[in-house]
Every structure is written in structure tokens, then in C-alpha cells.
Amino acid sequence: MTDQELDLSPYAVRTDLAVEAREMAGPPDTPIPGVWQEASKNGGITVTRMHIQSQEGARAIGKMPGHYVTLEVPELRRGDTDLQDRVATTFAKEFEAFLSRIGVGPKASIFVVGLGNWNVTPDALGPLVVENIMVTRQYFELMPDQVGPGYRSVSAVAPGVLGTTGIESSDIVQGIVETAKPDLVIAVDALAARSLERVNTTIQIADTGIHPGSGIGNKRKGLTKDILGVPCIAIGVPTVLYASTIVNNTMDMVFEHMKQHTPNTDPLFGVFGSMKENERLQLVKEVLEPLGHDLLVTPKEIDKFIEDIANVIASGLNAALHEAVDTDNVAAYTH
């Protein structure tokens, strides 16, 4: 087998974020056919809107065709409640626009699914969001004449994980969808990132559905329009990254730091300095192999953060889904 025929996909940097996949595909100022992107920044919140329009664009960056919106807030880790309120408001407005862009009207019924394991903190985002969702379907079913204007039918469930229920989350959700017949499914899940800076600081919205466990290498039945029969929007926050990715990123930072002090780094790094990213990652994974697997790492502040970001997403969703909730002031729903 020649070098050109080697399958290096197991050594590719794993990421669930479309913005990171786009960065790995090439310089930001170099257009990629079939990929449209725009970004705006306001008050420390960067919003990137991306539309992968063709299979050519999908192959170029390794993400499915569809719409992606990413909110990046580097200061979110500080626990600033005012900033959290502004992020919730921005998220609500972006999600409202996202629904309009993909053709979901104000009367469409919604089913929110909180994926993940509530017993494992970095994986508890979905269940925590579901706890704070404004659920209204029961009123539409039992007393529709008493429902005030500005509300829609919203239901929610946290189906657990295969290891605790013995049933695939996708099968549970599919059964509920067939019975409740919502117009749209919103799936909330924890993600994996490539960059240290984006862990616990980023929210992604995508209309491509979701695959439970995909961020940590699991290939299982997902939640998509093809499987469920209705559109599925995925909301995710990266809460973990691989130890091999951390080591690889650290090596990059060391290389860049030393280049600022000497024009010739060859005597310092030798062959390491000339390695491509996937080659370095392959080496790092081989070194970590004696541990039995590549470690998943999460910041030590995850306990507080996961509650805060779950409240931000839930309050943003409540404002975006119900016209009666003021999108410009969601502070009452974030604490």
C-alpha cells in the first residue's frame, strides 16, 4: 500500500463544530465551492452563519449539507450573569431567524429531546435543558380554549442513554414522534471540539439532525428527518475534547511560540516541526495507546458551567418558540 492509499481517517482531528471543520479545510479568505459563510461580532459574541449548499461543499469540509449557526463567546467561562443574559437573547433571536429560514412557522408543534446521561456532568446538557423548557402540549390537548395567544405546543423528554435504559435513544424518540406527531424535533446534546478555546464557550445550531455519541467516536442510529419523518434541528455545546487533541494543540502553540524567538526551529524540533497535523496526531495517539484508549477531557469548572449554559439555551428556546415570551428580555428565564 502506498502513502496515497493509506487510510488516515482514524487520525483526523475530531470535531462536531462546522466552524472548526471549515477552518481545517483551508484559509478563511479562500472560498470553498458550495459553502457560504458570514460572520458578525457584537459585544463579545461572534455569530457565524454557514450554509453548505452542495455535496461538493460537504465533502470539502466533512459536514452534511445544511444550515449551521455558531455562537462563540470566549468570556462565557467567567460566569458573568449579564453576559449570559445577552447570550440567551442573541441565541433566541438567532434561533427564531433559523426557524424562519428553514420554513418552520409560529404555529408548528415542537418536541424537544434532551440527549445525554444526567449522571455524567459533561454529558448532562440535554437533560438539564429539558428541565427548564416551557412545556405546553398538555394544555393544547386538554384545554385548548384556555391557551392564551403567543404560545405554541411544546413537549419535551430526556430519553436517557443506551447504557441505562437498554434502548437506543433514537428508537425511544421515534416511538414518541409517531404517537405525538410533532412538526419539528429539537435535539440538544453535548459535543466534542478540536480547540481548547471553544470548549464551554460555543453553541451550535444545525438543521442536519444529530447522532448520539458521534462526538466521542460512537456510530449509532441518529435523529434525522430520514429516520423520524419530521425535520430535526440539533443544538450542541462542546464540553469535551480528546487528550490527543490537547497534546497536538499544545505542540502547535509551542512551535508558534519558538518561531517568534528564532527563525530556524529545525535544531529544536527536527522532524516534529515538519510533520503534518494528522501525522503528529497519529504519533500522539500511538503514545497514548498503552492507556487503552484516547482520554476525553473536560475543564474542572464543568459542574457550574453546564448548569449555566443549560439555562441559557432553555431560556433562549422558550423565547424563540413562544411569541408571548419577550425575545429582547429573557433574563427572567436564565436564573
UniProtKB/TrEMBL annotation:
The record's section on Pfam families has: Peptidase_A25
Keywords, sorted A to Z? Hydrolase, Protease, Zymogen
Q: How is it modified after translation?
A: Autoproteolytically processed. The inactive tetrameric zymogen termed p46 autoprocesses to a smaller form termed p41, which is active only during spore germination.
Coiled-coil intervals: none
The Enzyme Commission number assigned here is 3.4.24.78
- Oligomer status and interactors: Homotetramer.
Recorded protein name is: Germination protease
